[in-house]
Amino acid sequence: MQKIKPTPAGHKKVNNKQTESADILLPDELDEKLHLLEPKLKPNSDIKIREITISGPSAVRAAVIIIEGMVDSQALNHDILQPLMLGRREEAADAANLNDLVDRLQRTVLTVGGIIRTDRLDQLLDYIFDGFTAIIIDGHAEA
Q1: How many folded domains does the chain comprise?
Q2: How wide is the angle at C-alpha 16 spanned by C-alphas 141 and 31, nearest 5°?
Q3: For 32-37, which contacts have Cβ atoms below 8 Å and span 24 or more sequence positions?
Q4: b/e string for 21-53 if b means 16 or more Cβ within 10 A?
Q5: Which 3 state secondary structure label does DSSP give 43?
Q6: The pLDDT value given to residue 6
Q7: How far apart are CA 29 and CA 26, in angstroms?
Q8: 8 belongs to a structural domain
Q9: Which of 21, 64, 86, 141 could form an SS bridge with 122, CB 3.0 to 4.6 Å?
Q10: What range does the domain containing 75 cover?
Q11: Does residue 2 form part of some domain?
Q12: Residue 27 has pLDDT above 60, yes or no
């Protein structure tokens, strides 16, 4: 029988999957982000990835990632998907560049509270598995 050493206080146990994702920054391109995420998310059949287009004069590709059953689908549709895909074209149109667009979406289009931004793969995975809705946007490294 192998003896297991206790984890010292203040130290978090880390498994190999966590260390593989640690310190990896998210790329700008949506397809590259999805390529990084899919192997870590696909084993869980409850995870849903929905590709969308953010409305505006120059449409921007994005993807919304959720764990089915941990997210209220009615709130998801009403508070996130509809405003991004159908609403407030004038808000998106006023953005000078993609960073402005993301800031403006956060301030004026998305009506949900508790928005957290990250540019790290390990944090994004933690948020997804904690039940947060993740939005990744083409051309923007943050989620």
Answers
A1: 1
A2: 30
A3: 33/63, 33/136, 33/143, 34/63, 34/136, 36/121, 37/65, 37/121, 37/124, 37/125, 37/136
A4: beeeebeeebeebbebbeebbeeeeebeeeebe
A5: coil
A6: 39
A7: 9
A8: no
A9: 21
A10: 40-137
A11: no
A12: yes
| Confidence (pLDDT) at 81 | 86
Q: What is the mean pLDDT of residues 75-83?
A: 84
Query: What 3 state SS string does 73-133 have?
Result: HHHHHHHHHHHHHCCCHHHHHCCCCHHHHHHHHHHHHCCCCCCCCCCEHHHHHHHHHCCCC
Tokens 């409850």, residue? Answer: 46
Instruction: Look at residues 130, 139, 137, 118 and name the one whose alpha carbon lies nearest to residue 66.
Output: 130
Residue pointed to by tokens 């990084």: 36
- Please tell me the pTM assigned to this model: 0.76
User: What pLDDT does 87 receive?
Assistant: 62
Q: In the sheet where 47-54 sits, what is the strand order?
A: 47-54, 60-67, 134-137
Other CB atoms within 10 A of residue 128 CB = 21
Tokens (6 digits) for 31? 């397809």
Mean pLDDT, rounded, for 122-136: 94
Q: What is the pLDDT of residues 39-70, one digit of tens each?
A: 999 888 999 999 999 877 678 899 999 999 99
| pLDDT in the model for residue 4 | 39
The mean predicted confidence, pLDDT, of the chain is: 78
